[in-house]
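Example 463.
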Amino acid sequence: METQYRVQVLIAGGGTCGAVAALAAHAAGADVLIIEQDATPTGSTAMSQGLICAAGTKAQHAAGIEDDADRFYADIMAKTRGLTDPRLARTIADQSAPALAWLIEHHGLPYELDIRFRAAYGHSVPRVHGWPGHGGADLINFLHSRLQAEGIDVLFQARLIDILAGPGNTAEGAVIERPDGTRETVLCDTLILATCGFAANAAMVGTHMPEAAGATHHGHEGNDGTGILLGARLGGALADMGAYQGYGMLTDPQGISVPPGVLVEGGILVDRHGNRFVDELEDIAGLALPIIARPGGIAWVVFDAGIEARCAHIPETQALLALNAARIAPTAHDLAARIGADPAALTATLRHAWNAAEAGRPDETGRRWGHDRPPAGELRALKVRGALYHTQGGLQVDAHARVLREDGTPLPNLFAGGGAARGVSGPSYWGYLPAMGLCAATTLGWLAGQTAAAQVKKESVLF
Ligand SMILES: Cc1cc2nc3c(=O)[nH]c(=O)nc-3n(C[C@H](O)[C@H](O)[C@H](O)COP(=O)(O)OP(=O)(O)OC[C@H]3O[C@@H](n4cnc5c(N)ncnc54)[C@H](O)[C@@H]3O)c2cc1C
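Predicted structure in complex with flavin-adenine dinucleotide:
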């Protein structure tokens, strides 16, 4: 094993967090290298819808939406029942808009406010941003095209397998392994862990979130927790290891996520008998468990042509339409026959929901319909399963994305962001706000890159 490189800022993981960290560190004048285990950049980012929440953006202002960091902070604290780290929540609330603005204004990221992603699931105003007609694969390709344009090196097929520890828990370098088993050492002044979470590590899932142990994993296979475990071994504290997004609408058999908008716009979930079992708008990340608990571990999303049309701009809707994935029928009675449900039960389910909506009272699940209405007319149904998408616990970081020890002091030169760091989703599955995964990846990546670069600049002046 030979030492081949030395860099100022070494970044493990070339997903959103790693790419944004690299762009930020490079812009601050540091010499940067990303090591990425895969041959091409994908990560969870490429599987995602690419949506990012941020508060107080220019796009919100232009759309007449009043939002700011204080309101975002209050939403995060309310959604997590006050159980997330308030300093980190403050950081995410304060820095999400500047981080996104930097990507838009300095790098040309074509993101806009997704005005059709209504305030729901804990966001009190519309603050989800995206690239119209595009998803997470486009986001990661865009970020890597920017890395290339800026001349930032990415070493693909280079897997972080160990951190070289120096005095005082310093990360002196990384051991990387190539697909043929050969190993190299990269020395560094600072190390940023951007290797995402551990949803693909069955043992860690079983330990930290046993209730999700049986769930299908629908995230990137590379999320095996290596970065988190190595950071902890160097002395980093772990927090909220039971936090995750358990999404309830992974279509069976297509394996495509039904966009949350289908529920927000009026869609409902029924079990295989045709009965409802959950308030569909209560909790986006909490839908997986009740579905897993239903007979056969499946549910059906029932919606109508109007709901479908209002979600037609979303790539996942288009993919499902292209596959003719939905079963369609003119009445609830006929739809029940098509999905193997009890016609009387499904008809009654829709009638009860309609009665509650028209009467302006919560329905049997507690859902409040407001101006929305349950499905009507020609109906559609998609079979879905609950799945584990990504974890939200990890290395405890401060407002500069520095990894903290158990006593709250920062490790000398270790940073973390995105799925490798503790997020702001509280301790379990019910604290996840829509589009928070990529918000934490961009915001903490941006902060980590800037701080790591500032640290090496300062040290190079001192020595
Ligand atoms: C289906 C799905 C839909 C989602 N939709 C959204 C959404 O719309 N909005 C949102 O905010 N969040 C969404 N998420 C969550 C979001 O994708 C993640 O929170 C986000 O991508 C995390 O970014 P990251 O950079 O930390 O990780 P990733 O994008 O996963 O990147 C981590 C990278 O590190 C690499 N890596 C891992 N281990 C090593 C190692 N040992 N050595 C070298 N490289 C390594 C991986 O190969 C990967 O490329 C979704 C997730 C899924 C699964």
